[in-house]
Write a structure and sequence with these properties.
Blueprint (H helix, E strand, L loop, with lengths): L1 H23 L2 H24 L15 E5 L7 H9 E5 L4 E8 L2 E13 L6 E6 L12 E4 L4 E7 L3 E7 L8
Antiparallel strand pairs: 1-2, 1-8, 2-3, 3-4, 4-5, 6-7, 7-8
Length: 175
């Protein structure tokens, strides 16, 4: 779209300005044409440099490795505090996932599984395969939501509906 605009609008305007400048021997018209092209080229270079800052994070398999906690920023209150104190998980570099049922800092039960990724998209999609019996939170693979700098995972629990997890270390709440 922009290329067509440049070819059919900017180039003819530039040619006309340069012809007028040549016929009238006034540099002003050539300076206008130069200003137009400097502006277009500067904008193109600047947008290319800044585009990574304003595009969503591209997730690779290695980005999934780490510890995850309930993201209490989406829904605050007693329910999210309870989930934060009772659920967390870790994905290790050997593609293992350990889902922890906790009582605050104490791990009560651990569910184990494996992860893999699907690379058919711009970002790798996480696929989780759990050993049986499984916990209801991990009955399906999560939906991944990408931001500019990070991402979060949403699991659809049969009992709790959407559960939002983000990377982070568990810390005791000050309630």
């Amino acid at each position: 779209m922009y290329f067509i605009f440049i070819i059919f609008v900017i180039v003819p305007i530039s040619i006309v300005l340069l012809l007028i400048s040549g016929m009238t021997e006034k540099k002003f018209f050539a300076q206008i044409a130069a200003f137009i092209w400097v502006t277009i080229i500067s904008t193109a270079i600047l947008s290319e440099i800044l585009s990574p800052l304003f595009s969503k994070k591209k997730i690779e398999k290695s980005d999934y490795y780490g510890e995850y906690i309930i993201d209490r920023d989406y829904f605050s209150g007693k329910q999210s505090d309870w989930q934060y104190n009772n659920f967390r998980f870790e994905i290790k570099k050997n593609d293992s996932i350990y889902f922890f049922i906790t009582d605050k800092s104490s791990i009560i039960k651990t569910y184990k599984g494996k992860i893999s990724t699907r690379n058919r998209y711009k970002s790798a999609r996480l696929k989780i395969t759990m050993e049986q019996p499984n916990h209801h939170v991990l009955s399906t693979s999560p939906t991944i939501y990408r931001g500019y700098w990070s991402f979060y995972l949403v699991f659809n629990s049969a009992k709790f509906n959407n559960m939002f997890f983000k990377k982070g270390k568990w810390k005791a709440l000050n309630n």
